[in-house]
Amino acid sequence: MSDQAMRDAWFPVGLLSGLTRAGTASMLMGEDITVGLDDTGAPSVDCGGRKLPTVERFGHLWTSLGAPEKDLFTIPEADHPERTLVDVGVVRVKCSPLRAVENFLDIAHFPFVHTDILGEEDHPEVNNYKVEVRKDEDEVWATKVEFYQPQAAASAGGGIITEYMYRVPAPTCSVLYKTCPPRPGEWDVICLFVQPLTEELCDVWPWMALFDDTSTITDLIHFQQLIFLQDRSILENQIPKKLPLDPALETPTRADLTSVAYRRWLKRHDYTYGAQLVAE
Amino acid sequence: MILYDYILSPSCYKVRLLASLLGVKLELRAVDFHPGREHKGDELLALNPAGSIPILVDGEDVLTESAAILSYIAAKHGQNWLATSDAGEVGAQQQWLSFSHRLTSALGGARLVEMLHFPGDLAALQEAGIAALRELEAALFARRLTGQTFLVGDRITIADIACFPYVALAPDGSVSLDPYASIRIWMRAIRAQPRFIEMPGIHRLHELAPDPLAGDA
Description:
The structure holds two protein chains of two kinds.
Chain A: H1 4-7, E1 11-15, E2 24-28, E3 31-37, E4 43-47, E5 50-51, E6 54-57, E7 60-63, E8 84-87, E9 91-93, H2 97-105, H3 110-113, E10 130-134, E11 139-149, E12 160-170, E13 173-179, E14 187-198, E15 201-210, H4 217-235, E16 243-244, H5 257-268, E17 275-276
Parallel strand pairs in A: 16-17
Antiparallel strand pairs in A: 1-7, 2-3, 3-4, 4-5, 6-7, 8-15, 9-15, 10-11, 11-12, 12-13, 13-14, 14-15
Chain B: E1 2-5, H1 10-21, E2 27-30, H2 42-47, E3 55-58, E4 61-63, H3 66-77, H4 87-116, H5 122-145, H6 158-168, H7 181-191
Parallel strand pairs in B: 1-2
Antiparallel strand pairs in B: 1-3, 3-4
Helix pairs in contact in B: 1-3, 1-6, 4-5, 4-6, 5-7
């Protein structure tokens, strides 16, 4: 098994607003890196004396251990000038980076983990939705995902049917588009950017681009941290630690279509850092 | 009463939890603790020079220590959540309120290192946290032999609320609660209280009970 495909991918390694000249020690796929600003004040990532490529986007600094063929993905919707861009801040999770993304793609756990916020225990049904791998972009997309939510967002006044679209544009990144309560017709953009420290440890950098004229930035940060920290205790207790890619190991249901597509897509691209290929 | 609050702070949660259990309404003021470090900014330092949260403001009264805040709210709204005048109860309550600071610095410290990138000696914090948990386990086991479930007297008190959150969140700092049977029974008894509320990492008992705060949103 080679990690080269993932070494050539882009990963978030810090908030642009948090970079310092002193630098911060971190890790990427098991290698020690230092993330900070160079002598000219430009963002830089050092790996054992080697300067890694960098991209500044979505409020974060991105890097790669290898030589990425493609530019880092874009989120055109997030460029709208009236959106509030929210740096939610890092949370460390003792789980596979791929499991963190897979959990983000799952809807069925909402009533039980995010009870009375993103779901209700007496409304657990996941209706049919559509999953595809878009050939041109080479991205996993799930669309027409609908779910009843008591408090879908900080800006939601009460229970609504929320529509979701999920997008996986990179092996450890997911972009979620969801119904925007104060602005029908637009989508709120909520992202999960995951930095793989090791195969079983990751730093998660949630980021959002929202239409919300009433909530404070702090309220928006706290709503997202509340949701993500409810997931964290579940993620840290999943067994096996690595994401199983062997189809013999688990029996998915229809509600898991996005997860199934994500796992197949990972396997096809050899994005297997943090994955378990053969049942143990 | 205004509570300067952070959704992920176990010390702020103590206050929210007691207020909910007593049916007391708090006005919450969200503080950007992470990543914004707002508690170290000028406005909040003027209110609390220690640079910590929670902070409770009730008219002229400003309180910045979670144990003091719990005592204050109970004295105002739930006298039976305080020790009686019995010397044994008064001593035990004070003992556990002070003990809760050890949980905060050890288990809370390990949690901040493990979860939010705070600096600290993780192994030393975990070791101190395990020592505190063993002490709590022994005390709760001894209480159970006398037919008691909670730490002080014959009922749940602020001593339990002060100690509960950092114990329940020990796994966030990679300290397992598996070895402590008496602690787990005690935590379940707290989670079973009417009007119990959860925080991330501390789940409600899933019995389809309505969220007591759901109507207030």
